[in-house]
TrEMBL record:
<keyword id="KW-1133">Transmembrane helix</keyword>
<dbReference type="GO" id="GO:0009617">
    <property type="term" value="P:response to bacterium"/>
</dbReference>
<feature type="transmembrane region" description="Helical">
    <location>
        <begin position="29"/>
        <end position="48"/>
    </location>
</feature>
<keyword id="KW-0472">Membrane</keyword>
<feature type="domain" description="Reticulon">
    <location>
        <begin position="1"/>
        <end position="182"/>
    </location>
</feature>
<feature type="transmembrane region" description="Helical">
    <location>
        <begin position="109"/>
        <end position="135"/>
    </location>
</feature>
<dbReference type="GO" id="GO:0005789">
    <property type="term" value="C:endoplasmic reticulum membrane"/>
</dbReference>
<dbReference type="Pfam" id="PF02453">
    <property type="entry name" value="Reticulon"/>
</dbReference>
<dbReference type="InterPro" id="IPR045064">
    <property type="entry name" value="Reticulon-like"/>
</dbReference>
<dbReference type="InterPro" id="IPR003388">
    <property type="entry name" value="Reticulon"/>
</dbReference>
<protein>
    <recommendedName>
        <fullName>Reticulon-like protein</fullName>
    </recommendedName>
</protein>
<keyword id="KW-0256">Endoplasmic reticulum</keyword>
<keyword id="KW-0812">Transmembrane</keyword>
<feature type="transmembrane region" description="Helical">
    <location>
        <begin position="7"/>
        <end position="23"/>
    </location>
</feature>
Amino acid sequence: LLWRNKNLSAGILVGASLVWFLFDVAEYNVVTLLCHIALLGMLLLFIWSNAAHVFERQPPQIPEVIVSDQAFREIAQTTHDKLAHFVSILYDIACGKDLKKFLMVIGSLWVLAVVGDTCSFTTMLYVGFLCALILPPLYERYDTEVDHLVAKGGEDLKKLFKRLDSNVFNKIPRGPVKTKVH
C-alpha cells in the first residue's frame, strides 16, 4: 500500500480500475463474468485434454483440494468470534454508552448514505480502494502537516460542540434530578 514495490502497486491499481470499468462503466454482470470464466476454463481443459496425445503431452492433472474438518472449524470459529465481537461493539454504541462514538457512527452512516445515493456500490468500493492505495503514501510524506490540520480540526469541533452545548442542549428543559438515599 505504501508503493514500496511500484510495479506491484501499479498492477493492483490497473486491476482494480479494470474491474471497476467492467462492472460500473460497461455494466458487466458478476454472474455473467463468472459463467464466462468457467466456460473459458472448461473450453481450455477440453482442448488440452483432446489435443494432448496429438502433441504427445500429458493431459491436464487437476489436483484434488481437500479441506480438513479441523481447518474448516477453525475458520468458522474465528469468523464467529470476530462477528460476535463486532456485533457487541455495535450494540454498545447503539445503546448510547459512549455518546461521542454514537454521534460519530450516526454521522458516518448518514454521510455514507448520502454518498451511496449519488453513486453505485462498485464506484464506492473503487473510491475506497483508491483512498487505501493513495492516502497512506501521502500521509507518510506529509505527516506533520496532516497531523497539524487534524489537531486544528479537532479543536474546532470541540469549540463547535461547546457552543452547541451552551446554546442548544442546555436550554432543553429537564425534570428534577432524583438523589439516591443510602
